[in-house]
Design goal:
A hairpin with an 8-residue loop joins strand 3 and strand 4. The radius of gyration is 15 Å and the shape is globular. The protein is an alpha+beta fold. The termini are far apart. The protein has four helices and four strands, in the order H-E-H-E-E-E-H-H. The longest helix is centred in the C-terminal third of the chain and has 10 residues. It has a four-stranded mixed beta sheet with strand order 1-2-4-3, with helices on both faces.
Length: 116
C-alpha cells in the first residue's frame, strides 16, 4: 500500500475497506496507515468490531449499516461523505469497483465467469 502511494499524485484522503479505529484501545489498519503517511484515513467496514468505536451509516434502502471510523479526519464529515458517495446500494459504487479490481476482476457490476 505504501509503495502504491508513491505512484498516485496528490492524495488528500485515503478510504480503506476496514476499520481505521477498533475499540479505542487497539489501532485499526487505518490508524496505522495514518501514522505512516500523515494522511487522513476513513475506514469503511461491512461488519462491526466488537466493542468498536465505528459509527453505523445507512445508505440507500439498506437496513444493514456500514461501519465508519476515522484517523486524522473529522468523523461527522466522513459519515456525510460516505453517505453521499455514488451508488444506490449499501456499498458505494467506487468501493465496490476497487474491491473487484483488488480481486482481479475488471468490474464489480460486470462479472465474467470462467469455465472451471
Amino acid at each position: 500500500m505504501l509503495t502504491l502511494l508513491n505512484y498516485v499524485p496528490a492524495v488528500s484522503t485515503i478510504i480503506i475497506d476496514g476499520h481505521a479505529q477498533l475499540d479505542g484501545v487497539h489501532k485499526g489498519l487505518g490508524q496505522h496507515l495514518h501514522e505512516c503517511t500523515g494522511l487522513p484515513v476513513i475506514g469503511v467496514a461491512k461488519n462491526q468490531f466488537k466493542n468498536g468505536v465505528a459509527k453505523p451509516v445507512l445508505r440507500g434502502s439498506s437496513k444493514t449499516p456500514l461501519w465508519v471510523s476515522t484517523a486524522g479526519y473529522d468523523e461527522a464529515e466522513a459519515i456525510i461523505r460516505i453517505q453521499n458517495m455514488a451508488g444506490p446500494y449499501r456499498i458505494p459504487q467506487h468501493l465496490k469497483h476497487v474491491d473487484a479490481l483488488s480481486r482481479g476482476r475488471q468490474s464489480a457490476t460486470k462479472r465474467v465467469w470462467r469455465n472451471r
